[in-house]
Design goal:
Blueprint lengths: L6 E9 L3 H12 L4 E5 L23 E4 L1 H9 L3 H5 L4 E3 L1 E6 L5 E5 L9 E5 H12 L5 E4 L3 E3 L6 E3 L4 E9 L6 H6 L3 E17 L6 E7 L2 E8 L8 E9 H9 L2 H11 L7 E4 L3 E10 L3 E2 L2 E3 L5 E2 L7 H22 L6 H30 L3 H16 L1 H12 L4
Parallel strand pairs: 1-2, 1-11, 2-8, 5-13, 11-19
Antiparallel strand pairs: 3-7, 4-7, 5-6, 9-10, 10-11, 12-15, 12-16, 12-17, 13-14, 14-15, 17-20, 18-19
Helix pairs in contact: 1-4, 1-8, 8-9
Length: 407
């Protein structure tokens, strides 16, 4: 790292210190690259370890369903034991059903010869684990300051006037990525016409370490199991995606009325919904960059693609990007190539774009299939779900691939 003419230089500069950017920076530093990580918010607040959750408002409303493939990546980076030291809840089963019919699919880790299907973790706990690992690495952390400008072939300028140069700049700066906009990388995007309502519930029955998902014509509802670190199995995170008008109506309800509607929507699968946290709502938009790379820039995570939250796959797609970019940059280091080399970046894009598009198309297909209300479609959908549930080898192979149990 040099400071020639007032410019601080790195091999790779990662912009955005969320779950994806911080993992990438950690992995690159372990490969021996000189890495800078820019995070606009100050990171001191990340060091506070939350107390065991006494009530529904103790949990963060944003959680991720971490697949076994993403767990392996975090394990390789040395961060997974730190995730496990905080709140996390492994789930062994997943039940998906048609809220408008009788079709039901049951996934079980035991049938896949796996210990878990995945782990539900509050996003802030993943970020904290990664920053605890970063504190022991050679990564140069630049926090509490945002990037003011960047252009191809030019230094990154921070809002405090500092200039940073790098052979490769990585945009891990989220769905509204300013780096993507400055680079001119175009996106294909459309509005789902839905909002996701998120929060935490306490139920009268145990969640049984099961992820629950109901599909209705106005949108899916997921209950994801949480652990409060005292062995109480009655907390779940919920994600309720609804058409915008319906979401607004639900957000306007008082707490008790909303609790009743939520209990009806999950069809009493976990008994009574006893308590609901403060609710948050955000609009759903699908977005995919036509290209993930350009001269000296690569996009990862939500900066490259955002997906409907119905399967909780957003973080896993981002970690897939991290895994492949680390793989390609490790190869570049062995070959003595610059990390921003066009061929290195082209290989990253080729390996990730198809997989991300396949997952996004599958999620869109699911959403469209369950949005149809015509009787023949409902009958076929329910018959298809029952048929699929009985075809154990096919069902388990698809589940293993989605969960990252194979490979």
């Amino acid at each position: 790292m040099s400071h020639e003419s007032g410019v601080q230089s790195f091999d790779v500069l990662v912009v955005g210190g969320g779950m994806i950017g911080s993992a990438l920076a950690l992995g690159l530093s372990r490969q021996g690259w000189q890495v800078g990580l820019i995070e606009g918010a100050p990171v001191e607040r990340l060091w506070e370890r939350p107390k065991p959750a006494a009530d529904v408002d103790s949990f963060e409303p944003r959680v991720s369903a971490i697949s076994l493939a993403s767990e392996r990546l975090l394990q390789d980076l040395g961060a997974w034991p730190r995730v496990q030291a905080g709140r996390h809840c492994g789930y062994r089963e997943m039940i998906v059903w048609d809220g408008d019919g009788t079709g039901r699919i049951h996934f079980d880790a035991a049938e896949l010869h796996a210990r878990l299907l995945g782990t539900i973790v509050e996003n802030r706990n993943i970020v904290r684990a990664l920053f605890e690992s970063l504190a022991e690495s050679d990564v140069t952390l630049i926090d509490g300051v945002r990037v003011q400008s960047w252009a191809r072939g030019e230094s990154v300028q921070l809002e405090d006037g500092r200039l940073l140069a790098a052979d490769l700049v990585v945009g891990a700066d989220g769905a509204m990525s300013r780096l993507r906009q400055w680079s001119g990388l175009a996106t294909r995007e459309w509005d789902y016409g839905q909002h996701a309502i998120v929060g935490t519930v306490r139920t009268s029955q145990s969640h049984r370490f099961t992820a629950w998902q109901s599909f209705t014509p106005t949108g899916p509802l997921a209950f994801l199991p949480l652990d409060n670190e005292t062995g109480d199995e009655h907390f779940c995170s919920f994600v309720w995606s609804q058409d915008t008008a319906e979401a607004r109506r639900l957000m306007a309800l008082d707490a008790d009325r909303f609790r009743q509607e939520l209990e009806a929507a999950i069809e009493g699968e976990l008994g009574e919904v006893l308590e609901v946290s403060k609710r948050f709502s955000f609009p759903l938009r699908q977005r995919h960059a036509k290209d993930y790379v350009t001269d000296g820039l690569a996009l990862v995570g939500d900066a490259a693609h955002t997906i409907h939250p119905l399967a909780g796959q957003g973080a896993n797609l981002g970690y897939g990007d991290v895994r492949v970019l680390l793989d390609e940059l490790s190869r570049a280091k062995e070959l003595g190539l610059n990390p921003g080399d066009d061929l290195v970046l082209a290989r990253y894009q080729r390996r990730r774009k198809g997989e991300n598009l396949t997952m996004m198309a599958a999620m869109e297909g699911f959403k469209q299939l369950f949005a149809r209300d015509e009787l023949p479609v409902r009958w076929l959908r329910n018959a298809g779900m029952r048929w699929f549930d009985k075809l154990a080898p096919l069902k388990n192979r698809i589940a293993a691939e989605a969960m990252g149990i194979d490979g």
